[in-house]
């Protein structure tokens, strides 16, 4: 396969309409169609349309007023994932989810149903369970005067009940929030009139089947890190592969960055997919398949390992995927046989509005969540999880405890984090404080976006606008 000259020299063709320009190298689809295993059908779908080239105002990232309105109009109305079902497997298990100033208790009731309750006392407002808490309880008791609620939200204890003749038991029922599940994730929606989660998720349930079924995975690692940026700026750093060339140059010999595919599926879902095991179109020198494989294995496998020779008719990706499936299968005791080449090795990232990211791939099985800081639009919290397939022997490990990292802490310092990958995440988030500085200090007041590679960021803002415009 021939690659073009160095991409920095590639200019847009003036005869092509806005939105139709693409990297002059092979497309993601071209690349995966060469895989020996074939490609999962959903990966051959594509859904892009030009959505304009208007700049995006920086006030959307920096303004406190904007952040407050956004919280009310978006976070109080959109479905968002709060925890995993395995965080609360048994009756009475609970998990506290905080978003903005809100806090809710997710609990498994005696019927096995997951319910979500306001985590604040109906007497004088005291928070019932601390933020970040989880455990098991048959009632939630306020630490101040001892009012308590059952796991079904009924008032269970009220000391000196005689002094509250003006309140009925109905008045004392704990407000409940809509809950539903998908892929082992527990989603909540603060809006009692919100439509069903399944409709909200669009193509997601259909795409995440078989090997991609996230309900058959467990949380291997969970990092929660503070980031010095608005939650949308943090997300935007992960919505495109355009930055890979400059921010993560170490992997370019085996990363199809500029030929990534970007899709927008309806109002809430977008996706990118980029290859591992093909060279970046930014690299002018054509490598052999064997050189690409050697590079990949040198980086990802043990240093002493002998590099296999690529058999006739196969590619670096084919061999890399095969080896990966064996390696992952041994490490996690799980069956990876349903994965094809592309979903074994590639970076496949689905975004679910407003703040969830889900990666079905075997080598890159991530989940992200970005939460706004209610007091400061220049800060957010980033949850980073690794989900691994359930082991075949049925001994499913308990979900990992959360590892908290502050602004300056390296991801690599989290126990269990691969140091190389930790370094990649550090590279991603190193840019964010500088960008936030620019949002405030630049003589320009808006950012400009690539029409194709940054379409998901544009789509994010578009959907926010739709939510903000609703009465
Ligand atoms: S504030 Fe909770 S019991 Fe008084
Ligand atoms: Fe990155």
UniProtKB/TrEMBL annotation:
The keyword DNA-binding does not apply. GO terms for molecular function: 2 iron, 2 sulfur cluster binding; iron ion binding; oxidoreductase activity. Keywords: 2Fe-2S, Iron, Iron-sulfur, Metal-binding, Oxidoreductase. Its cofactor is Fe cation. Residues 79-188 form the Rieske domain. InterPro entries: Rieske_2Fe-2S (IPR017941), Rieske_2Fe-2S_sf (IPR036922), Ring_hydroxy_dOase_asu_C_dom (IPR015879), Rng_hydr_dOase-A (IPR001663). This is Unannotated protein. It comes from freshwater metagenome. The lineage of its organism: unclassified sequences, metagenomes, ecological metagenomes.
């Amino acid at each position: 396969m021939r690659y073009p000259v160095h991409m920095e020299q590639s200019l847009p063709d003036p005869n092509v309409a806005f939105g139709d320009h693409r990297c002059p190298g092979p497309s993601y689809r071209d690349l995966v169609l060469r895989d020996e295993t074939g490609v999962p059908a959903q990966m051959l779908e594509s859904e892009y349309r030009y959505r304009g080239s208007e700049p995006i105002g920086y006030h959307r990232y920096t303004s406190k007023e904007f952040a407050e309105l956004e919280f009310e109009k978006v976070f109080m109305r959109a479905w968002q994932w709060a925890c995993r079902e395995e965080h609360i497997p048994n009756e009475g298990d609970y998990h506290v989810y905080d978003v903005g100033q809100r806090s809710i208790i997710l609990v498994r009731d005696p019927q096995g149903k997951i319910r979500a309750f306001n985590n604040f006392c109906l007497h004088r407002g005291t928070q019932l369970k601390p933020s970040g808490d989880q455990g098991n309880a048959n009632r939630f008791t306020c630490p101040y005067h001892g009012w308590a609620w059952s796991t079904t939200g009924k008032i269970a204890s009220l000391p000196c009940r005689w002094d509250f003749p003006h309140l009925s038991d109905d008045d004392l029922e704990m407000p409940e929030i809509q809950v539903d599940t998908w892929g082992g994730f527990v989603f909540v929606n603060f809006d009692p009139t919100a439509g069903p989660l399944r409709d909200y998720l669009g193509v997601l349930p259909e795409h995440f089947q078989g090997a991609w079924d996230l309900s058959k995975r467990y949380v291997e690692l969970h990092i929660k890190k503070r980031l010095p940026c608005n939650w949308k700026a943090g997300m935007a750093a992960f919505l495109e592969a355009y930055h890979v060339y400059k921010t993560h140059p170490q992997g370019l010999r085996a990363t199809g960055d500029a030929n990534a595919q970007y899709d927008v599926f309806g109002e809430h879902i977008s996706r990118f997919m980029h290859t591992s095991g093909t060279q970046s179109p930014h690299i002018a020198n054509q490598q052999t398949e064997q050189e690409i494989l050697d590079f990949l294995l040198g980086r990802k496998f043990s240093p002493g390992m002998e590099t296999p020779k690529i058999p006739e008719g196969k590619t670096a990706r084919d061999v890399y995927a095969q080896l990966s499936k064996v390696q992952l299968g041994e490490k996690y005791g799980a069956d990876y046989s349903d994965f094809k080449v592309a979903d074994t090795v590639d970076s496949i990232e689905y975004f679910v509005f407003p703040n969830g990211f889900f990666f079905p791939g075997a080598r890159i099985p991530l989940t992200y969540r970005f939460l706004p800081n209610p007091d400061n639009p220049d800060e957010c919290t980033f949850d980073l999880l690794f989900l691994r397939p359930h082991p075949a022997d049925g001994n499913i490990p308990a979900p990992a405890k959360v590892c908290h990292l502050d602004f300056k802490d390296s991801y690599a310092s989290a126990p269990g984090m691969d140091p190389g990958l930790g370094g990649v995440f550090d590279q991603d988030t190193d840019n964010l404080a500088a960008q936030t500085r620019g949002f405030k200090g630049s003589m320009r007041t808006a950012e400009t976006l690539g029409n194709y590679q940054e379409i998901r960021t544009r789509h994010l803002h578009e959907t926010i606008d739709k939510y903000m415009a609703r009465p």
